[in-house]
Amino acid sequence: MNALKTRRLAWASLAALPFLWPLSSGAQTTDWPTRPVTWVNPFAAGSAVDVVARIIANKMAANTAQGMNVDNKTGASGNIGTDFAARAKPDGYTLLLGSPGTMAINPYLFAKLPYDALKDFTAVTQLVSFPQVVVTSPKQNFKTLPELIAAAKSQPDKLAHASSGPGTTSHLVMELIKADAGIKLTHVGYRGGAPAMQAVMAGDVQAGVEGLPSLVGQIKSGNIVPLAVTSLKRSPQLPQVPAISEFIPGFDATAWIVLMAPAGTPPALVARIQAEVKKALDDPGVKQQLEAQGATVVGTSAADTQAFHRSEMAKFKRAVEISGAKAE
Length: 328
What we know:
Layout: H1 2-30, E1 37-41, H2 48-64, E2 68-72, H3 79-86, E3 94-98, H4 100-109, E4 121-130, E5 132-136, H5 145-154, E6 160-163, H6 169-181, E7 186-189, H7 193-202, E8 207-211, H8 216-221, E9 225-229, E10 255-262, H9 267-281, H10 284-292, E11 296-297, H11 302-323
Parallel strand pairs: 1-2, 1-3, 6-7, 6-8
Antiparallel strand pairs: 3-10, 4-10, 4-11, 5-8, 5-9
Helix pairs in contact: 2-9, 4-11, 6-11
């Protein structure tokens, strides 16, 4: 009887083991982070993505007592860093800072990518959005978006708009505006947002689109005239400037930053990361810093972020098709 009792106890212990393993895994997920976390930024230091990420990462580092390191892995229109993040271990210690270029435009701009924007990543949260601004020079006769549209309709293809390059967000947002407003403007691509805005200010082109963070100083100084913001509603940073949706109902085309994890990251771990990010975003000091950069704080759930990402891919697919842009 003693031997039989011993065997029964042994089998009972083995049978209980599968129920213990999930508990152990759950404990590990709850403990995140236990070591430094890398946030991969596919673009250069000092960019809007970089500045925003460091503000949030610094607060999270203080909250968690673990390093949150922004690693700039640049090149190939953001594809190098994005591919690196896609191949990382799905353990919550390598995350991607995704933006329209890498996560919604490049999939349609490039004939072949080393990563799949949908299949290779799990959405964590949307950090912020950035209104784009349609701008002109004080030298131009039109001072409102309806006036620009009227001028373009009266002179098809005679007016030009600047962008930071073919296939960039600033280029494709204007392509959506042109399509929805029924106007024709000649596109002139520059090597970056700064020279594009210089061309607008000099009057070399009649209009342009650029992200709000890059324009705050020039708008305040009067060197550039804002005609409209591309967000669905007016920006708190420019409350006097109308949204395009006031003239083209439903128009919404902003820049944004989403935090992504490699595909296969456990849902409980994704939820844990999202909660920590939300805690940082809810901090009044962080909000103030981000708003000073022209950003609007978001902080959505993983499910809402995934849905948002898919809708943005559809939007920018249309923009790429309209523009006819292809990667060089």
